[in-house]
Amino acid sequence: MAREGDTGCWCCCWRVLVVMLVMMVGAASAKLIYVEENLPLPGEESPPGSPWPLPREWSQSPLQVTLDPTTFIISADLLGCNVIDYAIHRYLNLTFIGGDTKADVGLPVLPFLNVTVASGCDHTPHLNLDPNYESYTLEITQTEEGVSGRLDAHTVWGGLRGLETFSQLVHIAEPDNVYRLNVTKIKDAPRFPHRGLLVDTARHFLPKNILLDVLDSMAWNKLNVLHWHIVDDQSFPYESRIFPNMSLYGAYTPRHVYTQGDVMDIVEFARYRGIRVIPEFDTPGHAQGFGKAFPHLLTPCYGDGKTAGTPKYPFHAAYENLDPTNPQVYDFLKAFLVDLKHTFVDGYIHMGLDEVFLPCWNSSPVVHEFMAKHNYTEVRDVEQHYVEKVLELAELTPLNYITWQDPADRGTKMQNTSVAQVWKDVSLSSKMRGWREYVRDLTEAGHQVIVSSCWYINYITYGQDWKNFYKCDPTDFQGTPQQKALVLGGEATMWGEYVDATNLLPRLWPRASAAAERLWSVPLSEAPSVDIAAYRLDQHRCRMLRRGIPAQPILNGYCGEWEVPQPTTSATNPPAEAPAGDQTQGESQGDQPSSAATTVAPPAATPAPEATQNESTGGAGTR
Ligand SMILES: *[C@@H]1O[C@H](CO)[C@@H](O)[C@H](O)[C@H]1NC(C)=O
Ligand SMILES: *[C@@H]1O[C@H](CO)[C@@H](O)[C@H](O)[C@H]1NC(C)=O
Ligand SMILES: *[C@@H]1O[C@H](CO)[C@@H](O)[C@H](O)[C@H]1NC(C)=O
Ligand SMILES: *[C@@H]1O[C@H](CO)[C@@H](O)[C@H](O)[C@H]1NC(C)=O
Ligand SMILES: *[C@@H]1O[C@H](CO)[C@@H](O)[C@H](O)[C@H]1NC(C)=O
Ligand SMILES: *[C@@H]1O[C@H](CO)[C@@H](O)[C@H](O)[C@H]1NC(C)=O
Ligand SMILES: *[C@@H]1O[C@H](CO)[C@@H](O)[C@H](O)[C@H]1NC(C)=O
């Protein structure tokens, strides 16, 4: 908790002109202090305990009740349903983070929250287009009979979403350090069924515990799909059951491997949070990782024009793509794909099929021979040959598939359950079109789509770039209602070229929260302005800090006492009373970034330096 004294001292040492907007903030515990030099922040403050993402219908009341952490119960009408039992356990914990916080003796006490799930227990979340699949209503009422809380959901997954909201409504009031909760009625359902986050464990390995943190924090943002870009050119950390030497030779080291046990733990952890885990095994490009154990599955490029397996930098490496002319490639993939169903429980797999780097194939006489035999006139036809064969193989597995948009752009015929993921945008390359045009054309052709183009959260800029993510809307394109209904949602992407365990979480949150709200809550046209959302997002950021996730700041100020790392011992640090040196430093640095919070960050269309490569020169980092 922030002590009053902290604020006073900190304030008087801040010698520049400061307008302080002090507000009590909720579930984030303690006081959240906003500081803006020269200009007050635009927008309106959110009351303590404001949820993120915003519920669809939220009736608020100024009436308040309290909770007693020693007696409060969450009970469910489902007996022995693990998903709900574990969630109750988890949310009791998350609701009452706050150490010495107690019930407010002056207020009526909410004794319990009763959860009902209409459709009974369920164990595995899946893609479900019914909006009731994750819907819930949450009511905290106060009548003459007393205070009561109820959460009604159609499925256990709706129950989880409602418990998350409940835990966010409960807040800690200063200065008495007591739990409070307003009388509330919420009726909520997701806008889209597919609300994803891509993480990349090939460019840099992400330890299992970080992936579990990602899953936990995804659930706090009501995201429900982890798109696991698990392997790529750089490494192959996935331990295959049937081809264990792929990770033996393809991982950076034996330490940088997800064993079958690790993967199953991750899938299981996700399942309890209502999150689907969809692995991506990208081919025929981005596939050098496959070649470490199976070199003969890759096409040797002829970089010098005559020798197999020679590079031509910067155009291609010695080996780039799987070899579409080699029948063993298809036998291998069939076995590999069929086996995945054993480990990954979701009904979908991501097949990649993007950014195939054609100059290597084009350099190969073997590929040209193959073209002649099939009467193909262009190397693109060879890619298409591969794509069609591999999609046929996928149809032999019990898995449905997602692919990057590339094959759908070319009019490839796909299963009607398939999903095309839109990643291209003119901001990535001047050879591409705006993402809205791709979504328009793909839905016009009848494809289901998910959108990522405007949520490349791996690209960082100075200032409040979350506002650009917040302002992106996947159905913001010219199309009929039928076309818009084919948009299943979207995914924020965190490509891993410059991301590992040191910076993943701060870079992810709360920037991905902006996409999460767009995917869960109302369309942009009905949404609060970014200036209003900023206050609620700042609370949410503090809430994540409080729950142990190092989410980065979006405004000047501080989150009560929840910043990391907090000095907990004086063994290596000076006493807690802020040393003068720190404050001087704060002052001089305070002048400079003052524009950060008031200046709108550059528009999303500004390409990041590593984003300006040509589409055809593909390779790592283009996406
Ligand atoms: C909760 O009640 C307090 C006190 O009446 C009020 O200031 C605040 O705006 C309410 N919060 C919400 C979320 O309605
Ligand atoms: C919540 O869980 C954490 C981690 O397991 C534990 O340290 C903490 O004591 C728990 N808090 C409560 C209130 O149960
Ligand atoms: C709500 O749960 C409490 C505690 O488990 C129980 O005593 C009460 O009967 C329940 N009320 C309803 C309406 O189900
Ligand atoms: C990996 O194992 C396969 C058999 O599953 C074998 O054909 C291949 O040669 C092995 N790779 C290496 C590099 O030993
Ligand atoms: C290629 O074209 C030749 C001549 O038109 C034809 O005889 C042959 O059947 C074609 N081959 C394939 C695989 O389509
Ligand atoms: C796909 O086609 C099948 C049978 O033709 C139909 O029952 C199903 O509803 C279709 N699914 C989608 C997502 O369009
Ligand atoms: C993009 O392509 C153009 C034309 O093919 C070429 O001149 C240019 O150098 C390429 N740029 C990069 C960054 O590869």
In short:
The chain has 623 residues and is an alpha/beta fold. It contains 19 helices and 21 strands. It has three domains: 1-25 and 566-623, no CATH class; 57-190, Chitobiase, domain 2, CATH 3.30.379; 194-557, TIM Barrel (Alpha-Beta Barrel), CATH 3.20.20.
Task: Describe this entry's structure for a reader.
The chain is of the alpha/beta class and 623 residues long. It has three domains: 1-25 and 566-623, no CATH class; 57-190, Chitobiase/beta-hexosaminidase domain 2-like (Chitobiase, domain 2, 2-Layer Sandwich); 194-557, Alpha-Beta Barrel (TIM Barrel), CATH 3.20.20. Helices cover 30% and strands 19% of the residues. The protein has 19 helices and 21 strands. The strands form four sheets. Strands 3, 4, 5, 6, 7, 8, 9 and 10 form an eight-stranded mixed β-sheet that branches. Strand 1 (18-24) and strand 2 form a beta hairpin. Helix 4 packs parallel to helix 6 (260-271). The longest helix is centred in the middle third of the chain and has 18 residues, at 379-396. It is elongated. The two termini are 42 Å apart. The structure holds 2-acetamido-2-deoxy-beta-D-glucopyranose (7 copies). One 2-acetamido-2-deoxy-beta-D-glucopyranose binds at residues 73, 75, 112, 114. Belongs to the glycosyl hydrolase 20 family. The active site is at 355 (proton donor). It catalyses: Hydrolysis of terminal non-reducing N-acetyl-D-hexosamine residues in N-acetyl-beta-D-hexosaminides. Keywords: Disulfide bond, Glycoprotein, Glycosidase, Hydrolase, Membrane, Signal, Transmembrane, Transmembrane helix. GO terms for molecular function: beta-N-acetylhexosaminidase activity.
